[in-house]
Amino acid sequence: MRLLFLGDVVGRAGRLAVLETLPKLRERYAADFVIVNGENAAGGFGISEAILNELLDAGADVVTTGNHVWDQREALVFIERYDRLLRPLNFPAGTPGKGAGLFKAANGADVLVVNAMGRVFMGDLDDPFRAVDEALTACPLKTGADAIFIDFHAEATSEKEALGHFVDGRATAVVGTHTHVPTADDQILTGGTAYLSDAGMCGDFDSVLGMDKDEPISRFLSKIPSRRFAPSKGDATVCGVAIDVDDRTGLARAIGPIRLGGRLSQAEPAFWRQDVREEDDA
Ligand SMILES: [Fe+2]
Ligand SMILES: [Fe+2]
């Protein structure tokens, strides 16, 4: 089976690009299951119920989040009505919503999605390593789930790599989010888990992390906030990753970056194109 993941959707530019691209990607590559990080989808800060529904209607099976999950306060309430919206697993006990769930993919497979958040440079949370470990113990690969995808929303690449190796062989994929910048370290770890430090954002890269450049530059220069951060409005690059899953083991056979549209160099995983050719030949 094939998993598709798209990184943090930032503002209207990111949203429009994802809404336009995702249905085509889903169909063209017969993705069985799609996860999208929506923590910056509403004006760069959080997610609204209407935007969540747009992403689900466009073909996201699950929407993950991160530190910005509650920026739109309504999310504290509507998250309880949406099984397919996750917030970080290691938030304090009693936090609304949940951080992991088992979902049915298009091919009938059961996919466990875990959304965890790092602590390095990010503030105090429960230990993400132990929280992820508990989620994997409760629902192990093959006996509990046919595939396991972990969105690790974290700042430090060291913490991300460590978590990848910590669950190597027990999860299908660990993909990082939050930095909004795609990394080029996609690989299959020695135990068979696909890994990428950061998927990058779905947003306008003529920006500082998806926001209009002027205010961030001014704050670095003067340390005086002069206006709110606003999402950059130019053409967005849709950034993500595709994972080919070995249906026998639930581990990864291949991983490859996706970057479509906007300013970044374009990328699509070779194994997706190859499969399309094989289908065309048949
Ligand atoms: Fe983000
Ligand atoms: Fe974040």
UniProtKB/TrEMBL annotation:
Q: Which GO terms describe its molecular function?
A: 2',3'-cyclic-nucleotide 3'-phosphodiesterase activity; metal ion binding
* Residues involved in Fe cation 2 binding: 39, 67, 153, 178
Where are the active-site residues found? 68
Q: Can you tell me which residues bind Fe cation 1?
A: 8, 39-40, 180
Keyword terms, alphabetized: Hydrolase, Iron, Metal-binding
> Coiled coil: which residue ranges?
none
Gene3D superfamilies of this UniProt entry? 3.60.21.10
Superkingdom to which the source organism belongs: Bacteria
User: Per its UniProt record, what InterPro entries does this chain match?
Assistant: Metallo-depent_PP-like, YmdB-like
Tell me the Pfam families matching this sequence. YmdB
Asked if the record carries the keyword DNA-binding, the reply is: no
Q: What protein family is recorded?
A: Belongs to the YmdB-like family.
Q: What's the protein called, per UniProt?
A: Metallophosphoesterase
